[in-house]
Amino acid sequence: MIKDRFRLPTLERFRHQVADVNALPQLAILGLFSGLFSGMVVILFRHAVELPLQHILPNLDDENFEGLTLLERIGLPLFVGTLLLIILYKVKPKYLRVGITHVIERLGYHQGHLPIKNMLVQFLGGSLAIISGQPVGREGPAVHLGAACSSLLGQWLKLPNNSIRTLVGCGAAGAISAAFNTPIAGVIFAMEVIMMEYTIAGFTPVILAAVTAAVLSEMVYGMAPAFSVPPMFLASLWEIPLVVVVGIMAGVIAASFTHLVQLTCQLRSRPLWQRIILASFLTAVSGALLPEIMGVGYDTVNMTLSSAVPLQLLCFLVIGKLLVSSTICGLGLPGGLIGPVLFIGASLGGALGIAGGFLTGASGSPSGFYAMLGMGAMMGAVLQAPLAALMAVLELTQNPHIILPAMLVIVVASMTSKYFFKKPSVFLAQLQSQGLNFRNDPLSQALQRTSVSSIMERQFVRLARYCSFEEASQALATKPIWIVIDTDKPEAILLAADLARYLDQIQEDTDEEHESDNIDLLALPGERKDIIPLYIQATLHEALEKLDQTQVEALYITSVSAPMINRINGIITRKAIERFYQFKH
Question: What pTM does this model have?
Answer without folding.
Answer: 0.80
